[in-house]
Amino acid sequence: xxxxxxxxxxxxxxxxxxxxxxxxxxxxxxxxxxxxxxxxxxxxxxxxxxxxxxxxxxxxxxxxxxxxxxxxxxxxxxxxxxxxxxxxxxxxxxxxxxxxxxxxxxxxxxxxxxxxxxxxxxxxxxxxxxxxxxxxxxxxxxxxxxxxxxxxxxxxxxxxxxxxxxxxxxxxxxxxxxxxxxxxxxxxxxxxxxxxxxxxxxxxxxxxxxxxxxxxxxxxxxxxxxx
Amino acid sequence: xxxxxxxxxxxxxxxxxxxxxxxxxxxxxxxxxxxxxxxxxxxxxxxxxxxxxxxxxxxxxxxxxxxxxxxxxxxxxxxxxxxxxxxxxxxxxxxxxxxxxxxxxxxxxxxxxxxxxxxxxxxxxxxxxxxxxxxxxxxxxxxxxxxxxxxxxxxxxxxxxxxxxxxxxxxxxxxxxxxxxxxxxxxxxxxxxxxxxxxxxxxxxxxxxxxxxxxxxxxxxxxxxxx
Lengths: 227, 227
Hints:
6 strands, ferrochelatase activity (chains A, B), Rossmann fold, four-stranded parallel β-sheet, two-stranded parallel sheet, cell projection (chains A, B), about 230 residues, alpha/beta, 2 domains, iron (chains A, B), homodimer, cytoplasm (chains A, B)
């Protein structure tokens, strides 16, 4: 894990100690940014720079538009909504934000998020009237990618929307940014602004669709290494 | 080039500027060492660490025992010797040396050189009686991998060997270490020690066998990236 345990360094050292001479690294961030995919790759590079006997390395590119990823997200929305006793009239796709300065320096993250959101919306058969891409987790005083998730939820509540669902496609697994920031804090914001029903679509986590997606990514990366 | 122009940094920046999102790096050092293959990879890692929008990366492992490499070396020996008006009674496979300290720290370079030499010898149908693996280009006061090429040539000359050929399998292209250190200096050593005929087998350079080998390495590395 980039910021958890076991660390990337521990994982690589362990594989190397087991005799692995070929290592494939697939970042679980679907959308590329200097602070997502590249942050993982950078840590891998720093680890390999210290190894006397380096493995051959493959780093995966972004997979924000992989058909199985879009398919898994679509199914997760449908499955979750089918279990509710109310029907959302608006879906928000909320991604972790970034300082606008990154975007202006050429970081493709915003474009990748926009493409993921568009493909998901199209696959769900929704229009832009009841679907919106937003950015959460702003930190510090600088300007981040907009629209902000919290601001959007407040505006929708104040505009009279009563039933909202939020999906967080940039997080492969549920974490504090989804379980607390969206499912608790964002819900409060929406309800306080006049909303009535709020639901958070779970991340892909260990769903069959998620496992299928990861297996496809791995097989593509291992081409030529395994039969 | 690791120590020439265009530099690795220039090559990577140029590919990136052309829009390449997937870059394969194949070190032209066949035998892995911290100072050969890893030195190339390290420089690639350092360059990518500075890139905001990194390409997906693949680094190739060593190819010291690739059948087409051994085949190309074998053919280069046979072709070169067929053009001589004398017949070598001894073949030396001379590789760039390394401090013994590297070997003792676990660097596989010595093993890779030994395997390349053995496979070449077997493919040529030669015995250990008239074939020897040696190491050249020692630099500085520390102990390097032995036997040293120069010492071996002196001993063979003094022992009465008259006709010797030297091949330098670790260098894909002829360079100062082959054209000067072997073809001029090592020749002088052998002749001064009593030898009569000395020849240097050219490196693979741009021979058809060399191009075929590099194409095979590239195709293997690009599996899944190109059809």
